[in-house]
Amino acid sequence: MQEFNVVISGFDHYEDIDINPSAEVCAALESHGVEPSEDSAGDVRINVTSVLIPLSFQNAWPTLLETIDRVHPDMVLATGLKTHAHSVALERCATNLIDATRPDADNIQPRRAPIDPDGPAAYWTRLPLRTILHDFSDQNIPATLSSDAGTFVCNSLFYRLLDWNSTQSTALSGFLSFPKVNDGGKYGSGLSLDQMIAAAQDVIRATVDYAVRPVSDEI
After folding, report:
1. Helix, strand, coil proportions of the chain in percent (round to 5)?
2. How confident is the prediction for the chain on average, in pLDDT?
3. CB environment 7-40: b (16+ within 10 A), e (fewer)
4. Of 38, 144, 175, 216, which sits 20 to 30 A from 124 (CA to CA)?
5. CB within 8 A of 180, min separation 6: which ones?
6. What is the pLDDT of residues 9-34, one digit of tens each?
């Protein structure tokens, strides 16, 4: 049986957010795991390691990289929060730009600066996004493809992650943005925490299938 190691990261704190889906999903997946799809059942065992990272330009990526270096994952899924979103967002790319409209956890607020002065303008994920969206639709999980992870710590972390991934021959990485938690019904913004946990599980299952049995997919 093939072992497929996954690292999932979430941010440890968001100001004025009572229920942080980024952290809650990470805890749920490490606690309950992810079962492979029917296509991969019996052939693959998925091992999930979660890590919470600070909302810090300076410390977010080193914290995630420490776990990556320890686990040697086949997949890294970073997650974050888009407070005004109404659905899950699959981030397609990370841009080489920091332009913070508010301070980070270290009270640092860089403006109009590159993440890496010598790096490319953007990196694109290689996750099978169209397949993942199809799986979301089957489970009635509202979702969208996004080409804008913002210019705050989420995008900075995603850029560093994809820069690392560009040196890896087989590992796959992506970023999943969650809306706020809304367990009060269909009215108002956000989704239930159960829907967001299911979304993260779908992303991992679809990526495992793609890695084990690669197929053509558009980003």
Report:
1. 30, 25, 45
2. 92
3. bbbbbbebeeeeebbbbbbbebbbeeebebbeeb
4. 38
5. 17, 19, 21, 81, 83, 85, 189, 190
6. 999 989 888 899 999 999 999 999 99
Burial, 215: exposed, middle or buried (Cβ in 10 Å; 0-12, 13-18, 19+)?
exposed
Both tokens of residue 95?
């841009």
Q: What is the pTM of this model?
A: 0.94
Structure tokens that stand for 172 in this block:
């796959």
pLDDT, tens digit (0-9, with 9 covering 90-100), for 147-188: 988 899 999 999 999 999 999 999 999 999 999 998 655 555
Where do we find the tokens 């938690």? 181
Q: Where are the beta strands (DSSP E) in the chain?
A: 2-11, 44-53, 75-81, 88-91, 93-95, 122-124, 143-146, 172-178
Which amino acid is present at 6?
Answer: V
CA distance 4 to 150: 30
Quickly tell me which residue has 């914290």 as its tokens: 63
Q: Compute the distance between CA of residue 137 and CA of residue 130 in angstroms, rounded to an integer.
A: 11
Q: Which two tokens stand for residue 140?
A: 């009635």
